[in-house]
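Hi F.,

I've been meaning to write this up properly since the lab meeting, where we talked about keeping a consistent format for the predictions we share between groups. The idea is simple: the sequence comes first, exactly as it goes in, then the structure tokens exactly as they come out, then a line or two of notes. No screenshots and no reformatting. I'm using this chain as the first example so we have something concrete to point to.
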Amino acid sequence: MRPLSVATRTQVLSLLSSGLSSRDIEHQTGVSKSTVSRIAKDYQPDKENHPGGCLRKLTPMDRKAVLSLVRTGKASTAVEAAKHINSIIPEPVAVQTIRNVLKDDSFNRILEHALQLH
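Output, unedited:
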């Protein structure tokens, strides 16, 4: 890997400070995206990384409420749990979201059980 010239590094920093993405800077300067990202990390070490993806529709408290509904028998299906939780929260969620919560919980329980065996 050859070192970047001071002029190129300065240009990358200038483009970063103007708000361009690493990919856009790569296209403009010819510097690889990973190098641009490394320069950005050196330039702004405290900058927060964006996790990407969608925001969670249910808060941790809502997720616990869904699990409680199923565990106590107040809801026997994801559809019933969705109807109940949608009557409580301001933004309605899809049945698939409830299924995902239940799936995550069962996966976590399997992991906990496996860890207890070791």
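Notes:
The chain has a mean pLDDT of 86.
DSSP finds six helices and no strands in the chain.

If this format works for you, I'll send the rest the same way.

G.
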